[in-house]
Amino acid sequence: MTDSIFQIQNLSFAYHRQVIYGQANLTLTDPGVYGLIGPNGSGKSTLFNLITRLLRPAKGTISLDGTVLTPARVFASVAYAQDSSVLYPYLTGRDHLRFVAKQHGVARERIKLLSDELEVTDFIDRRVARLSLGQKQRLLIALALLPESRLLLMDEPLNGLDPDSVIIIRDLLEAFKTSDQIVIVSSHNLDELDKVTDRLIFKVDHGLSLETVAEGAEARYAKLYRHPRKKLVHHA
Amino acid sequence: MIQLELIKLWRQNKLLPGILVLLICMIGSIEASLYFQNQSVNTAIQYSQTNLAIFKVSADKRWAEGWLPDVKTDYKSYENQLTDLQHRNRSAMTTDALTSYSTPTPYLLYTGFDITQGLHAGENEATHQELLYLHRYHIGSMIPVTIRTNPETAGTNNIPANEAEVFQNLSTRYYECGWWQIWFWAIAGGLLVSLAIINLFFGDILASEWEGSTDRTRWLRLQNETHTKLILTKLAVHFGLSCLLLGLALGLFLLYAWLRTGLGDLRYPVQTWALGKRVVSFYNWMTANAEANYFYPLHIVFIPLARYLGQLSVFWVSLLFLNSTVTLLVNRILHIRLLALLTMVIVPLLGLVLPTSIYNPFTYLKGDWVITNYLGYLLNQRAPVFPWVVGIMIAAGAVCLGLTLVPLSHRGGVHFD
Question: What positions belong to coiled-coil segments (chain B) (predicted)?
Fold first, then answer.
């Protein structure tokens, strides 16, 4: 039997009577970067919300290092880079970072370190409302990286980014390949995902499937999800 | 968490503008009082001069060969009233008015016999008691000297239509000093206005966590902040800042008032209603005794303003607590920031326009009626209503808080852990 680091067992969840997950299972045995792929609305963000206990599953357990994730355990071991709408528009990046650092008992020096690494320093004292999407994404990632969690979840971190931001985040993900952390990245940017990992988690029907994809994420995606287009017929 | 909340409010520029708006309203109130007081004094002087001239002509006609000694004394007394008014001499006005009110036919120069006899509900008796109190403690009266009217009976006095304006002048007071203005706000619904102003800035304190489909509590909960802690923090911040805002604005206002007109005497008599013995009126009209005992078994008693303001501060703080909990509950239910804000501004102001009734909850929030126990008279209570009204406000606040703390699933099917 292989020791799992992260495990989802018999996870079931429905929203408005629509089943999102039914008896879903997933086991990750190695640290590193994993991609999470699925069509829009298939439940990728829902999975992150279930892992972090923002949503409560109808059935099933999610465990990390052999311990079931509770809110306290999530706080201690899971970091989640949510979408940028959760940031307070009237607060600065530093306000957000300081709050998270205080909550986790992280030294303030680490804020500077991460800000420099993610090139957040230039806009750290600017209000979030005045930041570009790429800057907000970098700030969210800095917030998630601050506590040095065992499991890092990143929800569409490459969405709407300028090339500079994409390079910064790609380099960061590259660095995680050799760390002892697990990073799960949900993204529609399959090319970029290909560049950082070949271990992909696909949302298939109501379950999850972990695959090591040599053929590339896009080709696998096409096989799994893409249906032949109907021919458009012009009616005169 | 509290620190984050304070930073949020600071960054949203809510603290200083909040103090500023409150202060502007307070200063506007005292300036308006001073303006209308000046007009009222001028009108009173005109009435007095007219009445004095009529008195003189009438007396000359009746006692052409020479005025009787009593008439001469009365004339001198009225002349003194006019001189005191012109010089705005508060102490002398108090003494002259007391002299007049210690006769069977009290007479203020700018009123007339008909008005004072048309009053009821012990208003002349109360005015006499108030003047005695002022004289005993050497306190100058508010100017002009006015009849002490009761909150609701003032409007039902049997005043001839052509004298209504005189009655208005005779019964309207102008609280021109600092402490007196605070007393005036308690009478005129200023407490509810203060809530509306506070809510204008903090009325969306919880709803601001939700904007459209965004739920920022998701981020907070990831930082080990539970729903209960979030609500309690919001309550502490809302209540604390409400008190701070009001306290700072009041402090600055009192400084302004001290420089402008002075703070006023804290021993100034405030009319209250308490159990007491039947009064035997010495006024000479037939219904004087019945009028003096209108509120029996309650009785008009005067207390120093300091005591009144002490009770008012307890009432106000309790009201702020209730307001904070209601704000959280409304925010929790509505979730929509602007709607929550609008609701919390409008709701307190409803108290100013809804009719007085025992079925209207705002009737119980009239600070002056509660502290003076006039509410006790309306509710046929013998004991003071102040303790139980304050108790009910705190209990109602606790109920609102309890309801806010009840976990609800909301958009996105998110559950609170």
Answer: 68-95
Minimal CA separation from A54 to chain B, in Å: 6
A75–B417 CB contact, under 8 Å: no
Rg of chain A over Cα atoms, rounded to whole angstroms, equals: 19
Asked if residue A235 has pLDDT above 80, the reply is: no
Question: How many angstroms separate the CA of residue B212 from the nearest CA in chain A?
Answer: 10
Q: Which residue, A67, A76, A79, is CA-closest to A5?
A: A67
CA distance A11 to B30: 67
Question: Model confidence over B148-194: pLDDT tens digits?
Answer: 887 776 666 666 677 677 777 778 889 999 999 999 999 999 999 99
Between B3, B224, B413, which is nearest A55 by CB? B413
Confidence at residue B415, expressed as pLDDT on a 0 to 100 scale: 38
Domain boundaries, chain A: 6-225
Residue type, B130: E
A88 at B interface, C-beta within 8 A: yes
Total tally of structural domains belonging to chain B: 2
CA B297/CA B300 separation, integer angstroms: 10
Least confident of A7-16, A22-31, B58-67, B115-124: B115-124
B410 CB near a chain A CB, below 8 Å?
no
Q: Which domain holds residue B76?
A: 33-175
Give the CATH number of domain A6-225; options: 3.20.20.70, 3.30.470.20, 3.30.2270.10, 3.40.50.300. 3.40.50.300
ipTM field: 0.80
Report whether pLDDT(B412) > 60. no
- Cβ distance of A87 and B219 shorter than 8 Å: yes
Cβ neighbours for A59, distance < 8 A, ≥ 6 positions apart:
A10, A11, A12, A23
Write down the residue that tokens 């994420």 correspond to: A217
Cross-chain Cβ contact A99/B11 below 8 Å: no
